[in-house]
Amino acid sequence: MILPTVTPRLVYLHKPLSRLIQLKAAIVRCTESVIPLNPSSLEAQMDTVFDAADTFGPARVIHIHRPSLSLNAIVTIDNTACGPAVGGVRMASDVSFDECLRLARAMTWKNAAAGLPHGGGKSVIFGDPKRPTAEKERVIRAFAQAIGDLHDYIPGPDMGTDETCMGWIKDEIGRAVGLPSALGGIPLDEIGATGFGVASCVDVAQNFAGFDLKGARFVIQGFGAVGKHAAKFLSAKGAILVGASDTGGALIDKNGLSVPELVALKDTGRPLFDYVGGEKVDRDSIIDVPCDIWIPAARPDVIRADNVARLKTRMVVEGANIPLSLDAEQALHDRGVIVVPDFIANAGGVICASIEYRGGTQRAAFDYIDEKIRSNTHNVLEESRRTGVTPRVAAEALAQERVMTATATRRWR
Length: 413
Description:
413 residues, Rossmann fold, 7-stranded mixed β-sheet, 13 helices, 39% helix
């Protein structure tokens, strides 16, 4: 008998019983046969995973491999002290294990800071999200089958996936959030829940930055599901969009770009460069546009130590997850630039998802998003101003306190 040479699913468990004790276990599952593993190779993989673990998690890391479908994915369930983990399913060709870990931790803090009865998790699927629909559906459904018994993880939409994808997952395993309205969901991308929350955050943060939102100039890096809605809500408050970018390039107009026209382009699948007017430059040049508010709403780590000096803004509000490195945030803080961290500013989507999961309405979701993000933004920026620490440090202290309080009620911790 010839045994297969691939590992369909590899699970790492981490239970921090104390700061001195860790339970390490690796479980290999295969639907057809047992797979021989090299003990030294397995130990090396375990050491790599557990090197990233701390008091808060990750609780489990699952690698999924289905070669016949070209499915390669990672699921990180970071922490479930506050409840079952909620986190998006991201599909992109350049995702990574490190990105999955960091995003899952961001979801732990985001859910805790928002006061939701959920922990944090994240999934990444390696591949092109623009592949033919039939092929994408096969991969998403296979992924759903692979996570069917991860009952403490509730998947939602993220970069490269949408409400339709969540519908496929719900059909396979009976749980998902961010569903199409036809399935009783609150379509996050369609209504712009995350972008709405970003605008609420900016509305509060302006008081700490010393300028009036009406007439303020803002830039959107990543004019997609989050960015376009943030632009709509901010322009409705009187702010002026002076720069926007997508994967094809960037548009700049110091006199203001037409938000309705740009939204119409993206809604029909067209690039920003089809816009009539404005200066067309490469997408990286969006970093150099002078503004009052700079909103990253695309990929992680777009602002780092090597390019942070190029930003000419008074405020950064993180519409994307982990868009700035920690040293970049510190550099901006040292310059007096306010940086509202991702898990405070862009929590609108997961708040909406949590309310949907419990049968709430769109109106209830928007009311809670506005209330919670305004309150958290004010509290975090006030604490940052009082103590001198970065807003992220202040925000993490808030979230960690809530997670630790929840952890104290758990049998295993």
